Amino acid sequence: MINYKDAGVDIEEGYKAVKLIKNHAAKTFIPGVINDIGSFAGMFELNGYKNPVLVSGTDGVGTKLEIAFKMNRHNTIGIDAVAMCVNDILCHGAKPLFFLDYIACGKLDANVASEIVEGVANGCIQAGCALIGGETAEMPGFYKDGEYDIAGFAVGIVEKDEIIDGRDIKDGDVLIGIASSGIHSNGYSLVRKLITDYNKDFSGQLIGDILLTPTKIYVKSVLSIINKFKIKGMAHITGGGFIENIPRMFKGSFTAVIDKNSIKVHDIFKYIMSFGVSEDNMFNTYNMGVGFVLCVDKDDVEGVIESLEKMGETAYKIGHVEAGGAGVCIK
User: PurM-like N-terminal domain: which residues (predicted)?
Assistant: First the structure.
């Protein structure tokens, strides 16, 4: 007699994974969560808002996963999955409320799944949101053994009259960059083409470990700044780098003028450039050391930077806004 396990799906391993995952998820629960992991759906109660708008985002980690497979390190990838979603919804001033993940694999290893979700839980804690559900799909013959994919979905909230959408941006406003933690989770198809030995030493560390540095989560610092200053626009520097993402904060016809000499470029980006990647391609692919950008009035620049630095962020002026045109000018 044949059963599901003979087809490659181990139900008992799935039960073990759920049990391990529950422990990680419980650490993230915040006021509003009204049921536990294991139900058919996650539930979250909204309180204390006058005219709330729900803001959602979804994303994955991309081919950075291959480095995790080869390094056999799985406890940071989940942070990336959370960061890519919560940093996006943060751009409109939204506070993340809850997160759901989706993990697909060829053969489920409960311990690996637990490591992945440990990272997801840590990312949720950094973002101040709850992990209230998810799905783990075992698909033998579809994914290679030892490989998996992870994606996530976040929902946040903001008062309707406090949505940040670029409507107040004007000529002469200043762009402030907040430092990234590294490459984050974009451009890894090029990274993997150029860098193949992940055990190579790079500044006293394995380069594979540097490449797996999780994406920085900006939620707590930026929400604190929003409460103190008028933030007119924000951009999460993800795929498409400066060129694609900064203009997304504009509502009218503006050009972001970036002083490239102001950018504190991380060593890993300089190393990628040493393979012959042009500066234009770098700014159109990577964050170059700046993972999040704020647009503020010139009178608020010093106060915003000082406040961010008090919270442990590295922040500095990277450019300004000019009326007319559309896009980014890096000079």
Answer: 53-158
Q: How far apart are CA 78 and CA 86, in angstroms?
A: 12
Instruction: Report residue 297: phi and psi, to 5°.
Output: -65, 145
The whole-angstrom separation of Cα 192 and Cα 190 is 5
Is residue 148 within 8 Å of 102, Cβ to Cβ? no
Give the integer Cα–Cα distance in Å for 223 and 219: 6
Amino acid at residue number 303? G
Give strand ranges (E) for the chain: 52-60, 95-105, 130-138, 148-159, 174-179, 201-202, 205-206, 231-236, 254-258, 290-296, 315-323, 327-330
Per residue in 168-181, pLDDT (tens digit) is: 999 999 999 999 99
Packed helices 110-127 and 11-26: angle between N→C axes, nearest 10 degrees = 20
* 287 CB-near residues (< 8 Å, 6+ apart): 180, 183, 184, 186, 237, 238, 241, 242
Pairing of strands 315-323, 174-179: antiparallel
Low-confidence residues in the chain, pLDDT < 70: 3-9, 11
Q: Which pLDDT score, from 0 to 100, does residue 77 have? A: 97
Report pLDDT for 4: 58
Q: What was the pLDDT predicted at 3?
A: 61
Q: What are the residues whose beta carbons fall under 8 Å from the beta carbon of 166, sequence distance 6 or more?
A: 232, 233, 249, 250, 251, 252, 295
Q: How many residues does the chain have?
A: 331
Domains, the chain, with CATH or none: 4-159 (3.30.1330.10), 173-330 (3.90.650.10)
**Cβ–Cβ under 8 Å, residues 85 and 218:** no
Judge contact between 271 and 277, C-beta under 8 A: no
* Token pair for 104: 């697909």
Radius of gyration, CA atoms only, the chain: 21
pTM for the model stands at 0.94
